[in-house]
Hints:
Elements: E1 12-14, E2 17-21, E3 26-31, H1 34-43, E4 55-58, E5 61-67, E6 70-75, H2 82-88, E7 94-97, E8 102-108, H3 112-119, E9 134-139, E10 142-150, E11 153-159, H4 163-178
Antiparallel strand pairs: 1-2, 2-8, 3-6, 3-7, 4-5, 5-6, 8-11, 9-10, 10-11
Organism: Acetobacter aceti NBRC 14818
InterPro entries: SoxG, TrmE/GcvT-like
Protein name: Sarcosine oxidase subunit gamma
Amino acid sequence: xxxxxxxxxxxxxxxxxxxxxxxxxxxxxxxxxxxxxxxxxxxxxxxxxxxxxxxxxxxxxxxxxxxxxxxxxxxxxxxxxxxxxxxxxxxxxxxxxxxxxxxxxxxxxxxxxxxxxxxxxxxxxxxxxxxxxxxxxxxxxxxxxxxxxxxxxxxxxxxxxxxxxxxxxxxxxxxxxxx
Length: 179
């Protein structure tokens, strides 16, 4: 009997590794000048925007700093708080909801780092990629974003069209890591 269960939901479960597709929530790509991003952080109730490649969680919203002029924002179903949308209506910016474009997984397990190492050239050890760090990278041939949410957990996002490819790649990498 196989130790894998891959369903139409793109879930993966292997010895030492699980990838659970995320359901719900909304995603926004925000681009703006430094002062615009600082103002958005203030509208979220923060003193400053996250530093490059860092994340900040505020209630049911997460701000991920992926570039000098970009925040990727993950929210609950309600979307962006009114204070944020009101502020953004007063300054130049580009805000695009990308919820339908993206698919995400929560990754866990003792073989997590070995599985990710087979997919990306990044060093996923905690000293190099601490909790809260986020970045873009290639996973096989898919461009994606990875965010370390805990000592042994990551959040992975790719474009929805890469979902089946990533699921297959993670499954194969997890199988190799389990040997």
